[in-house]
Amino acid sequence: MPPARPSRSGRPWVLPLTIALGLLLFVAALGGSGLVDETPPLFAAAGRAMAETGDWLTPRVNGLPRYDKPPLVYWLMASGYALPARAFWDPLGTWAARLPSALSTVLLMAVIAAVLQRWPQGRARHPARTALAAALAFALSPLVLLWGRIAVSDALLSSMLGVSLLLFWQSYVESGRRFWLPWLVLGLAVLTKGPVALVLAGMTLLAFGLVQRDLPTLWRQLRPWRGLLITALVALPWYVAELAVEGQPFWDSFFGYHNFQRLTQVVNDHRQPWWFFLPVAVIASLPFTPLLVHGLITSLKPLWAPALRSPPRRSLGTFAACWLLAVFVLFTAAATKLPSYWLPATPAAGLLIALSAQDLGTGRLKPALATAWLASFGLLLALSGVLWASPRWVPLIQDPEMPQLPAELMASGYVLRAAVCFSVASALALALALRPRSGGLLAVQGALVAFQVTALMPMWLLGDRVRQLPVRVMATEVERHIRPGEPLAMVGIMKPSLHFYSRRPVTFEGRSAGALANLSDRLHRERRRGLEPSSPEEQPTVLMVIDAGTADQQHWRDLGAEPLASEGLYRLWRLPRTALDERAADLLGSGAVTLTWNLPKDERY
Fold first, then answer.
1. 47 near 77, Cβ under 8 Å?
2. CA 99 to chain centre
């Protein structure tokens, strides 16, 4: 089969505009808010520790190794933390931590647009508009808008895997040209979150080859044995070095717990029904989920219509459908299920949405597409109604960590701004339903970009001020009051950001009586990097951050605590360790509690 020829009619404005919109959506105001507990501070602390200690092999948090993820995201964060004058341009420590997620998301937007410009699909009259719409359909997914701006590894995995898969498809339609490039990027994906990237890529390519009825050609063009060697050369050196240095604990934690057990057993109580990712997929593509369904059905028609020929070799829609279904099948089969697991499917969903909508300007709409567009309009209208009704439901929000959130949210006017944006989007969708035009999806997406910039980002900053600012204030108070060598603890509501902002090892415990006994014993016996055990004679007090609800528990009362500061829900106490030890001895002697802190744990901070 002769190689297909790419289009030479691309518009030079598409990539710059895609990148500019990506920077607006994901990089603007990125450092204006603090880290969101509980996972992002763990990533950020590990990245900063690498930059400050020079140990770029093993991620460490709070004096403990963190084996849950490979190092690429930590290396990128550490590179930001190593830049000069960071206290000036990144005072909250969030630019450096969030940039890997944000910039990798922008990169994937650019690759989506570039591939669709180079290889227009179907009857596209304006491929440049379809390319931009596909990038935005991915970026405006509610999941992407959230995870693309937080300091975890999910967005980086989604981007590295997405770029790799798009390059695989492009290499296939170009008869194996630059076959090595997607394998190299896949190695970076394996360095981001482990072997799951290999599994998802393999499932996608296998499904695509079977649907296309062209598996031998796909195998020949992509040269998997050579490709896997390239992937291994990129990814394996760190795994080998980490295993050599850390040994069995790394093997048991990373491969045993964070990969095998998550697939075969429920961890951290993340038990969900088998159909969990169906509603997640619906929410992740709002308000264009009907277009996603239409695009998915259209792309997979050859599966149930044998009379049809195989899809065209250049069918990016078929490839995107196989990609999305690979994510769905793998994580539906997994015992542990989290909404973020759907993130690798969002680029494929964006492609299917845009390819479905590109026929809006090709004459009279087919009934199925017209129905999908009207359903999307209905969803936009429903979301507008919900937002306009915010004075009725916002006061019902109850969060003990943010008791003043409803009043501040209503006073800000941000929800009403969101209502205006969705109303404009609804009006545009209705107009385009009455008179379809090419690029109609882009017009609606413009209103949703305005929603992100004028409403969602300000709401994020408000939530940070209400929820996270008190923890940062407590960290400042810790620095002001702590004595040389005095241990620091946080009990009750556990916030890893206290460790990040105080830059000190923190002993975290819960609110129960058993937590009190654990804390007493840990101060005597626990040894971590930066933390040595001590007796009350050596260190007579412990500095403790405690929330108001925990402080009211009977076993935490009457310990002779000296109140030093308070902010929001949190109190800063200086607690005599003799009183703490005596209360712990009474609880242990009565048999009411047992010590549990030294039992093996898969996840600790």
1. yes
2. 12
Residue whose tokens read 């259209």: 298
Distance CA 542, CA 544 (A): 6
Q: How confident is the model at residue 358 (pLDDT cuts 50, 70, 90)?
A: confident
What pLDDT does residue 362 have?
Answer: 61
Q: Report the range of poorest mean pLDDT among 63-67, 199-203, 223-227, 289-293.
A: 63-67
Q: Which of 280, 275, 359 is nearest to 317 (CA)?
A: 359
Give the number of residues written for the chain: 605
pTM exceeds 0.90: yes
* β-sheet bridge partners, residue 147: none
Question: pLDDT value at position 344?
Answer: 97
pLDDT at 2: 39
Q: Chain centroid to CA 288: how far?
A: 21
Spell out the SS3 assignment of 19-86: HHHHHHHHCCCCCCCCCCCCHHHHHHHHHHHHHHHCCCCCCEECCEECCCCCCHHHHHHHHHHCCCCH
Contact yes or no for 70/192 (Cβ under 8 A): yes
CB atoms within 10 A of CB 461: 15
Amino acid at 594: T
Q: Which residue has the tokens 């109850």?
A: 398
Write out the DSSP string of 529-596: TTB----TTTS-EEEEEEEHHHHTSGGGSSS--EEEEEETTEEEEEEEHHHHHHHHHHHHHTTS----
Burial degree of 152 (CB within 10 A; 0-12, 13-18, 19+)? buried
* Cβ proximity of 472 and 34 under 8 Å: yes
Nearest Cα to Cα of residue 117 among 170, 71, 171: 170
Output 15-20 pairs: Cβ under 8 A, ≥24 positions apart.
15/110, 15/113, 15/114, 15/117, 17/132, 18/109, 18/110, 18/113, 18/131, 18/132, 18/135, 19/106, 19/109, 19/110
Amino acid at 135: A
User: In 3D, which of 532, 524, 483, 142 has the Cα closest to residue 340?
Assistant: 142
Q: How far apart are CA 461 and CA 446, in angstroms?
A: 22
What does the DSSP assignment read for 104-146? HHHHHHHHHHHHHHHS--TT-S-HHHHHHHHHHHHHTSHHHHH
Tokens of 330: 């793998």
Q: Is residue 453 scored above 50 in pLDDT?
A: yes
530 vs 201: CA distance, rounded Å = 41
Residues 37 and 45: their CA atoms lie apart, in Å, by 12
